[in-house]
């Protein structure tokens, strides 16, 4: 099946520090919101030095024979906890290039951790329960988040200038399940604008 992923971007706020808030909406061909699409922005001028920190917990639990959440955004170098909240044991693993790991079998109310050292995606599974699947998107920019149930996400205080907007989703066909688009954030006389082509056709598996 082929669908249209529409990336609708609008710069909604401009701060005195010459930065803006970028809202991106991701929709399918029928106009339905796409949840768990990871949106990142890489300014051409680079990202600030130092550790990247996000507001959400770096945690992927096992509950009701599922991973929670389905998609987790993690900064490179971030350590993720994997608590087991089920009554059965799990053995969590990933064979993804650059982010391979395996957490040996452990039971209810136990937890294990793993540090993700490489930018990319880790497809996470359980050696005991094949139906369990989730994704960890490891990023190297503080301007990163995933879309909510309404298909929208807002990235705050992006500096003015050229940048690259990327949208990733596990069902998006193509190299790395990702689409990239250039964008330009311009600030003048206290007002800001964003320009670029934010639509793309992509096959969904």
Protein topology:
Elements: E1 2-15, E2 19-27, E3 38-43, E4 61-63, E5 66-68, E6 71-75, E7 79-83, E8 92-94, E9 101-102, E10 111-115, E11 120-126, E12 133-139, E13 144-146, E14 152-159, E15 161-168, E16 178-188, E17 191-195, E18 199-203
Provide a descriptive summary of the structure in words.
- The chain contains no helices and 18 strands.
- It is mostly beta strands.
- Strands 13-3-15-16-17 form a 5-stranded antiparallel β-sheet, with no helix packed on it. The protein has a 5-stranded mixed β-sheet with strand order 6-12-11-8-9, with no helix packed on it. The chain has a 4-stranded antiparallel β-sheet with strand order 14-2-1-18, with no helix packed on it.
- The N and C termini lie close together (7 Å).
- The C terminus is likely disordered.
Keyphrases for this structure?
mainly beta; five-stranded antiparallel beta sheet; five-stranded mixed beta sheet
The helix-strand sequence is EEEEEEEEEEEEEEEEEE
As laid out across the biggest beta sheet, the strand order is 13-3-15-16-17
Distance between the termini: 7 Å
Sum up the overall morphology in one term: globular
pLDDT below 50 for ≥5 consecutive residues: which ranges? 10-16, 199-205
Helix count equals 0
Task: Specify the structural class.
Answer: mainly beta
Indicate the proportion of strand residues: over 45%
Q: Tell me, rounded to a whole number, the average pLDDT.
A: 84
User: Percent helix among the residues?
Assistant: under 10%
Task: Profile the largest sheet.
Answer: 5 strands, antiparallel
- The beta-strand count equals 18
Radius of gyration: 18 Å
């Amino acid at each position: 099946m082929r669908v249209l992923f529409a990336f609708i971007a609008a710069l909604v706020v401009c701060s005195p520090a010459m930065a803006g808030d970028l809202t991106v909406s991701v929709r399918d061909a029928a106009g339905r919101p796409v949840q768990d699409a990871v949106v990142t922005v890489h300014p051409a001028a680079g990202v600030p030095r130092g550790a990247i920190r996000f507001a959400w917990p770096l945690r992927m639990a096992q509950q009701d024979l599922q991973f929670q959440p389905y998609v987790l955004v993690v900064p490179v170098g971030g350590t993720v906890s994997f608590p087991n909240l089920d009554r059965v044991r799990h053995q969590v693993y990933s064979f993804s290039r650059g982010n391979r790991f395996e957490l040996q079998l452990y039971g209810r109310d136990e937890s294990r951790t793993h540090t993700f050292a490489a930018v990319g995606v880790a497809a996470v599974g359980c050696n005991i329960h094949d139906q369990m699947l989730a994704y960890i998107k490891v990023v190297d920019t503080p301007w990163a988040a995933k879309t909510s149930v309404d298909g929208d996400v807002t990235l705050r205080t992006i500096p003015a200038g050229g940048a690259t907007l990327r949208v990733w989703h596990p069902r998006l066909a193509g190299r790395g399940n990702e689409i990239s688009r250039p964008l330009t954030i311009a600030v003048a006389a206290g007002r800001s604008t964003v320009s670029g082509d934010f639509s793309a056709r992509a096959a969904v598996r």
